[in-house]
């Protein structure tokens, strides 16, 4: 298939919209020449308003601290990631912070999502809680956090 440039408009009515334009026309985007783009629709998957990361064309999107999805903008496939086990369940942001990472594990041939939570009240030096989600198995694994958050 043809390579595309994916871009988004954030928080229009608290939603994110994705658009796709052929990559061969990308220079036109950066030269401020208008090009036509196709709006990509994932509305049937509920609300989300953030892009947390990307890997090999897959996007990690969601609502901060709530629902998270992995989506393939080319095929339109969307997979909801189940809520991770958190020490801060029941807390509301900004009482805790979450850092997201999304990447590919070449040894296990698997895409993984890493979530690191920490207490927002102890921002300067806080214990972290780390969970890893496997897209292949659909399961979360809690791991001992090797570090403290230090701002």
UniProtKB/TrEMBL annotation:
Domain F-box associated beta-propeller type: residue ranges: 10-150
Name this protein carries in UniProt: F-box associated beta-propeller type 3 domain-containing protein
Natural source organism: Opuntia streptacantha (Prickly pear cactus)
């Amino acid at each position: 298939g043809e390579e595309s440039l994916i871009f988004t408009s954030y928080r229009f009515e608290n939603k994110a919209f994705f658009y796709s334009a052929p990559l061969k026309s990308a220079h036109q985007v950066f030269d401020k020449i208008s090009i036509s783009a196709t709006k990509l629709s994932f509305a049937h998957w509920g609300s989300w308003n953030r892009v947390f990361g990307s890997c090999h064309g897959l996007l990690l999107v969601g609502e901060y601290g709530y629902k998270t999805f992995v989506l393939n903008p080319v095929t339109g496939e969307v997979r909801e990631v189940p809520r991770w086990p958190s020490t801060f369940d029941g807390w509301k942001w900004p009482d805790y912070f979450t850092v997201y990472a999304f990447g590919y594990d070449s040894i296990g041939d698997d895409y993984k999502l890493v979530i690191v939570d920490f207490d927002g009240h102890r921002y300067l030096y806080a214990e972290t809680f780390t969970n890893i989600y496997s897209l292949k198995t659909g399961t979360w694994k809690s791991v001992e956090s090797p570090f403290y958050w230090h701002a």
